[in-house]
Give the backbone structure.
Amino acid sequence: MNQKRMKNNVLAAIAALLLMHAVSAEQVLSVELDVYKNDSVVLHQMTVEEGYSTKYVSPGDYRLQITDASGKNLSDTVVGLSFMVWSDPPQEMDPSALSLRISYTKDMRILKLYRSDKLLFTSDINVCNDDGACEMGFETHLSCPGDCPQGSRDGICTPEKDGVCDPDCAQGADPDCRAGTGTTVSETTTTKPPGKEADAGLLGYLPYLVILIVLAALVLFVLRRRSEE
């Protein structure tokens, strides 16, 4: 009975590992700011992406706050910024770059940056203005599909076989792109040998297959040792 229970637990762990990648990714608000010593701030990017929120930042005197339209605090991140490059000898730098990814919700409206209690910068969180143009650095197909339909140059690579060549993907990353041209591969004119696309897709599962094999071998080893006792 114990062996059966152990086997079931290991199989459950394998299933959890295989599903881990799919369930851990989320929509995040990606924010990139340049902060100067004189307290001026320049916003470079504020987009909604598919990815992972920032888990650890060095604590310090700065605080990035996000609120809804009523002023309710939705996110508050304390962060430290350094204006020194620790080279030999150390050198000062100005500005210091601040880059954070925060779990995104659609009620996010205002972004604020403080140094201690001093408000340095505030901006509306406008990730879609529905003006018919895909604004790089602010709109993506995730936040604004009307302005940035799938296949737009929005800074996000979507390497999926969906019939659309994504211009943001590196060469060879999107199976829909004709090699070296950035155009969509035609199903009737493609010269790719049969089976190549399937092989490329299977490569993405290779790490999970390795984990599966290792865990299966571990189960067999433990069961064999128990049967010998």
Observations:
- The two ends are 15 Å apart (CA to CA).
- The chain has three domains: 2-22+196-228, 27-124, 158-191.
